[in-house]
Amino acid sequence: MFKINDEIIVNLDEYVDTSSLVALKPQIEYAIALHFDKAVPSQYVGDIFLDKGKGFLDITDDERVEFFNKYPYLKDLTHNQLLLWLRYHLNITYGQSHLHVISSRSWEHKHLRGECDKSEVTESFLPFLDWVESQQIFSSYGRVNLFLNEPGCSTPIHHDPPHKHISPKDQFIWITLGDRKKFFVYDENTGEKHYANGTVSTFDNHNYHGSDPGKFANWSIRVDGVFSEEFLTKTGMFRHFQ
Ligand SMILES: [Fe+2]
């Protein structure tokens, strides 16, 4: 497994002000409610799944044609509506949606401000973004993605980069408030799930990761950026990300 400072998940809570972050929870959830209709079902592409047979939403062109032939009315659906239809139609229990609080133009440059754009929901998340800036975690940050899981919906075990040989050492923080989201990094050798137990964490997204189905709706936010020297020094992650 790829580790950071010999840890599978690095809990960063002692280096940030978690109480002012927790105080923002109702406002963040207000913004989620306000923009819920704009959430996009997460579409996973490539060979990134632990279970190669479960390419949720990653259907082939042939399968798509087959669905359209069998159910001609599907042609009237928008892309997102079609993904939702698939979520109900296929015999699966998982599914995650996301909101681009700040979107990136490419996967490779998601940490760079100049390669990212504000979205129609950014304004509603300004209190959260102000918190991120006030913590001086990043010298600058780029993409901000909010992940939403409905009750009973898990996030399938996957790795982020399309290739699994060398870690690009993505610099990001992963945030959840409360204990609803059962997020874990998966050890493919032992089958063990290592659960995140903090509010603000980071991990190597080259490792398989996912989340168990929750009893209640849950969310998490990931912020990609360039860690500040100050943050790397105080967290002891300087050498890892050098
Ligand atoms: Fe991921």
Provide the CATH superfamily of the largest domain: B-lactam Antibiotic, Isopenicillin N Synthase, Chain
Oligomer status: single chain
Listed once per kind, the bound small molecules are: fe (ii) ion
Rg, alpha carbons: 18 Å
Helix content: 10-25%
Q: Mean pLDDT across all residues, rounded? A: 89
Q: What percent of residues are in strands? A: 25-35%
What's a concise summary of this model?
Helices cover 24% and strands 26% of the residues. It is built from 7 helices and 12 strands.
Would you give an account of this structure?
The protein is α+β, with helices and mostly antiparallel strands and 242 residues long. The protein folds into two domains: 182 residues, Sandwich (Jelly Rolls), CATH 2.60.120; 35 residues, no CATH class. Helix content is 24%, strand content 26%. The strands form two sheets. Strands 1, 2, 3, 4, 5, 7, 10 and 12 form an eight-stranded antiparallel sheet that branches. It has a four-stranded antiparallel sheet with strand order 6-11-8-9, with no helix packed on it. The longest helix is centred in the first third of the chain and has 11 residues. The protein is globular. The model has no long low-confidence stretch (mean pLDDT 89). Fe (ii) ion binds next to loops.
